[in-house]
Each structure stands twice: as C-alpha cells, then as structure tokens.
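Page 47, continued from p. 46.
Same chain as before, 208 aa.
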Amino acid sequence: MNTRETSENSTQVTDNNPPDAVPDMEAVAIAKARSREEKQKIFRERALKLALRPDTDDQEEDSLELIEFMLAHEHYAIEMAYVREVYPFKDITLVPCTPPFVLGIISVRGQVISVVDIKGFFDLPKKEITEGFRVIIVKNEDMEFGILADAVIGEIRLPAAKIQLDVPSLKGIRAQYVKGVTQERLIIMDVDKVLSDESIIVHEEVGN
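Result:
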C-alpha cells in the first residue's frame, strides 16, 4: 500500500482511499423543497397565532385606568392620571366663607388640602360620615384638592368602547362634569372640569 507522509510524519493519507462521494443532486433538491415547505408552514402558523393573539399595546391605548368609588348610592370613577393619592378622612378644619360642599381643609404630610363633598355639589343626598370615608386627592397643572368618597372600591381598567359619551339620563349640574357612563351605570367624572370650576377656586382663595 502506497502512503504519503507529511514532513512531520504526523499524518498519513492513503492513495487508494475512495474518492469523495458525489452528492445526489435530486435528493438534495427534494430535501430543500421539503425544508422550504416546512418553513413556509411554520411561518403560516406563526402568522395565524399573531393574528389571533390580542394586541396588548392596542388594549392599553384603548382603555382607561380608573379608581372607582361611591357617592351616595351611585358608582363613580376618576382617571388615575388625576389621582395623587387616597387619604383617610380625619382631622378636618372648617374654613369660613366657603359653600356647603367645601368641608374644610386637612393636613397631608404638612401640605394643606381642601376637601370638597361632591355630593353637595351634584345635589346628591348626604350620608353620615364614618371611618370608611376616604379623601381622593386629585390634581392637574393648576389646582389640587380632595374629593370626599363614601367608599373607595379600587382601581380598575375600563375599555374605552364601553363608555357611553352621550348620557341624556344625567341632567342638571352633574351632566356638566361627566365624561360618560357605562352600561353598568358607572359614571366617569370629568375631573379636569371639576378642578377648573371657578366657584371652587374663588371660595378656596377667600378661605385662604
């Protein structure tokens, strides 16, 4: 048997080794075709799954983060973007020269916050204040005060499509400060309008 040695005598290669096998081009073509079909099938399945999967980003854009609470016998909600915090109703100080719906002021970590009873503002029946009452401190760029809530239900996410903007059943002053109502009679309050109400701003300045 003839052999060929490298200069370092480290590798031997026989001259009579069989030549490299010639690939079967037809078999390769079939394998590639099958591979393409499998890939296309996988892509189709992925596309179908993506089409059926809910788009989380769209859901977030088309829904509202709200805090739900009670005023008298009615359920209300405020957008979380306007809510600074929820605080216990306690240690309130009365302020002269304010309308009946302005209850007074409280101190929240050294900051003085006016508290408004929206029930009086909306002509809703008042309830005896108990330990379960809470102050929802709301704010925008120009104003900040607390809204007295009979009870706070909690935070919710509400699809915008469930909000009815035209609410003919709401009349009087309440209708001016409502963004919409759901089929379950959850009233979405327009906090920006409440915070911008001149009667509250004027009386707060007088109280100060």
